[in-house]
Design a protein that fits this description.
The structure is a homodimer. In chain A, about 15% of the residues lie in helices and about 30% in strands. Chain A contains 7 helices and 27 strands. In chain A, a hairpin with a 4-residue loop joins strand 19 and strand 20.
Amino acid sequence: MISIEDARSLIHSQLFTPKPAFVELENSQNYFLAEDINSDRDYPPFNRAAVDGYAVRFSDIDSGLKTFHIAAEIYSGEGFDQIVEPGRCIKIMTGAALPQGFDILFKVEHCEVLDDVVAIPEDEIKKGLNISQRGENVKKGEIIIQKGTRVDEKIVHSLAAAGIYSVPVFSLPRVHIISTGNEIVAVNKQPSDFQIRDSNYFGLAFQLAKFNIKPESHQLLGDDKQEIRDGISTAIGGDILILSGGVSMGDRDFVPEILTELGVEKVFHKVNIKPGKPFWFGRLYHKDLNKTTFVFALPGNPFSTLVTYKIFIEPWLYACFQNPGLKHYFMPIVHEKKLKDDRPEYFPVKLILSGQVSSVEALRFHGSGDITATAGSDGLAFFSGNKLELVKGDPVEFIPWN
Amino acid sequence: MISIEDARSLIHSQLFTPKPAFVELENSQNYFLAEDINSDRDYPPFNRAAVDGYAVRFSDIDSGLKTFHIAAEIYSGEGFDQIVEPGRCIKIMTGAALPQGFDILFKVEHCEVLDDVVAIPEDEIKKGLNISQRGENVKKGEIIIQKGTRVDEKIVHSLAAAGIYSVPVFSLPRVHIISTGNEIVAVNKQPSDFQIRDSNYFGLAFQLAKFNIKPESHQLLGDDKQEIRDGISTAIGGDILILSGGVSMGDRDFVPEILTELGVEKVFHKVNIKPGKPFWFGRLYHKDLNKTTFVFALPGNPFSTLVTYKIFIEPWLYACFQNPGLKHYFMPIVHEKKLKDDRPEYFPVKLILSGQVSSVEALRFHGSGDITATAGSDGLAFFSGNKLELVKGDPVEFIPWN
């Protein structure tokens, strides 16, 4: 049995290396960038009016001028090539480009205007007032978004602004999923009194959907060696194979044995973690194809499946896409909590927001079969110290679901 | 100009009421449940072995027995109808159903087995040991997931476990999006020196995609009254219309005027918020159809669009789906920060995780045109007090992007 840290570093010692590809901007959500994105021009691309108002030359004010004739109007989207005599101002709208030399802009509501003469407010004379300077946000050629960044609702603004309509992203791994267990039936079938429904497939599929990954196949296999052998054989050609069930110590837990038989190199089996101890990880190198299939075999209890995906597979997937992954937070726990044994234990928690500092509350929870406990939770918490009773205020690591 | 609180309560005073519909479980991700979900049976549905081991009757131990002959083996998924004589044990695998009367289960690795005789460990005699009791997580008929809950990777486990293959969800609103401004060009076109690209459409579309909403149309309109009038007319028949640009005080900010002309009742225009002051909200009641179109007109600066969507539209959408929405967190700020004026100001922040308590750091930020500043951010922060200089440790409200 190895530690969580050792398990994680063994998993991370080899990454799936996704090939670069291009997707259209409107289809790029949740993909990861395969290249740094550089700005195609300064941003703002011109000295930009930040308000509606009157633009003058600072030098004119310096010469003592306080009122200005309106020489022209400029609207956003327009160029301007007139010559404006000294001592005159320009009416300009938010978003428009200031002409060369006009370097101070007064808000329309701060000026007094009589016919076409504008009196400027004398208490806010400052070069550059209300003007976003060309290139003040980004200079042409500068990296605006780094490789490995996930395209989301904020990033898409920058991609669009830079004119990246065809987005360089990492292509997705081919993933196969297998659920095992005689006690498992498909969700749309009626279970016997001794069976439960296959929720793990949907849990895993929804997790992977957050990476835009759609599993190529899903099988539900009984606890029968030949059935498992045949099932795995058809699913082992992709990039990632995720199994649930059949990895523990029972007489019909055939998965580790059959994976080994099929040539998958075991990297480790069993981790000092609760829940999820029977977690199995291995790799199959296909010499003919010069590629590796990564095999994760998770314990079949739904909560164990969820935790081991979250703790081992999800961070590895982020790493494969060159992304640092979800942040973990340190927060105090609001009530005492007994831990069950000396394995590092993950439990579902809710965030609590009363007071100035946030904290987490452990939810009523019946152990690894109790999937409903996670329904109202915001994430998992984890205590890394070595005591078995947490007291109010003890800091725990909080891992948000999203 | 009204306060953020008043704006929010005016927006929330009328909700879009989505009709219930059914989607298949595998397509239900990110939908909101239109009904409470009840458990179709106890969960676990039987007294379930939590480990691989040997099950005995507690009464036999009470009578002084310490060793037991193995009478049978039970695997998961199997029923059992043999009669087992007193003083005998059953070998049972994780996930299998314990037969009537067997109420204590010893882990296989804690027992000594010689031929078919098992000696139980004497230091852990406790009725119910290693058994998940039928119904301990959920009783048949109990509500396991409430109406309004978003279907995610945890909830899908419970839906699957309860056999909900056809999921009752709220249908989605029909949304139209319009970007306005002579300075705006489509992302796949080359802007002139005085133009910028239309990033707001993609920003809004990606926000809505998180609700599975796909806009029915998108228009990019110049600052021309007739063009705007025609454009809005074709987009006003849906449930929600979101515009960006053209709502400020400029001479060509025609949007509010034209919305009123077209019969949209203005609920308010201008909010005491930075950025986003020119935000406009109204409703059009279609008498013939007995339905309302909700109209949100956002300022066109990308950051202003992002903030006003996040602060006003997103919470309203959650409310329409009967969901409480994203949690806000209170956290200390790590550095001093000057606020720009007396409007309540939203600024992009990064989470900082050093130390036992999390905090937020304000990012370098050039104001509402500076969309790149949000790229590395984890959310928005907001200080609700009335001072203009925050000092290290001042609590701010943190609104995560997700």
